[in-house]
Design brief:
By secondary structure, this protein is mainly alpha-helical. Among the domains are: about 15-135, no CATH class; about 190-240 and about 280-330. The protein is built from 13 helices and no strands. It has helices at about 15-30, 35-40, 50-65, 70-75, 100-115, 120-125, 135-150, 155-165, 175-185, 195-210, 215-250, 285-300, 305-325. α5 (about 100-115) packs across α7 (about 135-150). The longest helix has about 35 residues, at about 215-250. The two termini are about 45 Å apart.
Amino acid sequence: MEKSGGTARWQPPSPEELRKEVLAWLDQCKASAVVRRSVEALWPGEGKAADAPDRLDRLAETFALADPRAAKLLQLCSKPHAEKVLPRQDWLTDKQTPPLVALNLRLFYGRWLARELLFDEAMEQLSGVEPTQVADPATLLFYQAVAYHRLLNREEGLRTIERLLDGGGPSPRRYTVVAQLMRADLQDLQEDTLDHIARRMDDIHRRLDLGRTGPKVRKQEDGVVKSLDKLIKKLEDQEKQQQQAAAGANLTPLKPAEESRIGEGKGPGEVTRRNIGQKSGWGNLPPKEREEAMQQIGREFPSHYREVVEQYFRRLANEPEREAEEKPAR
């Protein structure tokens, strides 16, 4: 249920309310007497209330007693994932599946997916589910926020964190503390900064470790390269501006001419030619020039970003070879 005013805008259902819904579901699915006795043992009467996360696990166990599909899902979520491609769970979004079962099992499954670092798959299950529809709204909002944070969805992440922290009473302390840290982190995150680029590269590594090598990952890799191009161009422009400003300062006369007259041109009319380098070819820079570029970036940004830029150089240097050898993505 969701409230307004000085208290939290959402509250978990009471154990009594949840027990009534479970018993009504048993009647709806015409459960056998054996199943009913097992379910009633999981949901004792008044005075045996459980915390909301425990109730979510208990609901999953309850549904597994009467539905083989829920039993398979419970078994899947009982251990780390071992397959690159998980079995589809289309029945969780089927209109024929009772909402009590579908929505709570989507939360149960989405929580497991997030813990397995499968954040895209987690969002498929958690998106569209509202706190008022599940037995544990705090867990729903927390794992939605975690997925948004890891996928660098700043606006949705901040919005979900605010919903989680709205009132604060029903949320476990571990949720509120981590949510506050995520909020501070997302508030300072700006697109196309080296910090943002580094996080995107971390996400690419996560996907590759999971065996995700399709067009989506390649698109993300290309996006990282474009962002680094923009960042390096910005540094080049800043350096040029500094050099121009320094050159202009050197041309400023220390003492103005005493009379307004044409100067005597006694010089040979020659200027020193300077090597100002090339604007392109970053990926194929000689080792010495590449190291100078790395030192320049090191002066502008924290040292732990050095690896990000080194990977960028390696990627550019190997791009022709990659394009020649690349096979169609899965």
